[in-house]
Amino acid sequence: EFPSYYGLDLKLSGTVSESYSNNIAFASDNEDKQENFLTMLSFGLDVAYTGKRRSFGLSGVMQEQLSLNGNDADIPSEHLTLGFQNNFSDYDSISIADTYDHTELPQTFIDEFGRYSGKLDQQNNAFSINYYKIVNKELTINTGYSRNVNSTKSSVLTDTNQNTLSVSTTYYYSELTNY
Fold first, then answer.
1. DSSP characters for the chain?
2. pLDDT score recorded for residue 104
3. Are 69 and 38 in contact (CB under 8 A)?
4. Who contacts 4 (Cβ-Cβ below 8 Å, separation ≥6)?
5. Taking the C-alpha atoms of 103, 107, 111 and 112 in order, what is their torsion angle to the nearest 10 degrees?
6. Cβ distance 71 to 98 under 8 Å?
7. Which of 34, 108, 153, 178 can bridge 121 by disulfide, Cβ–Cβ 3.0-4.6 Å?
8. Cα(97)–Cα(85) distance, rounded to whole angstroms?
9. Is residue 117 within 8 Å of 130, Cβ to Cβ?
């Protein structure tokens, strides 16, 4: 982690871990089980800015799972998150977030579930925007929209989209808010 510079923070991270699995393909039959030592390499970068009324964040992680036996159990993945928040006043704010994930699963993982043959390239993107309003000491209103897209480069599997609108209110009643 580096020292803050005009509200900007930077953090680098790296991880190496080792694990053992006696059934890396999640096989249901004992004769199909494969055991292996798995090494996980991870590198991450976080950048964040915090000001008086707004903040911004960018976070990314790249991972690679390597198998000792080299039996096609290597799994690369990437994760990226972007976030922004703006406080228009002490009573209302907006936040925007977007998250992207990409994973490539080997053939052995999917074949056991009978869904797909070959490498599965899977991507997920989730976007959301929320507006938060404090009406008074007792009442708050939160509205939002989110979109989630799951896609894969496969002729067998189909992409999915989900859109959500939300409105929620909260009413606080206590001796502290009623005077």
1. -PPPBTTEEEEEEEEEEEEEES-TT--SSGGG---EEEEEEEEEEEEEEE-SSEEEEEEEEEEEEEESS-SS--EEEEEEEEEEEEESSSSEEEEEEEEEEEEEE-HHHHHTTTS-SS-EEEEEEEEEEEEEEE-SSSEEEEEEEEEEEEEES-SSS--EEEEEEEEEEEE--STTT--
2. 81
3. no
4. none
5. -70
6. no
7. 153
8. 9
9. no
Q: In which residue are the tokens 């599997």 written? A: 157
**Can you tell me which residue has the tokens 């808010």?**
177
Burial per residue of 154-166, b for 16 or more beta-carbon CB atoms within 10 angstroms, e otherwise = beeeeeeeeeeee
Contact 95, 129 (CB under 8 A): yes
Q: What is the pTM of this model?
A: 0.72
pLDDT 10s digits, 2-32: 677 778 899 999 999 998 887 766 666 776 6
- 73-105 pLDDT per residue, tens: 678 889 999 999 999 999 999 999 999 999 887
The span from the CA of 66 to the CA of 19, in Å, is: 10
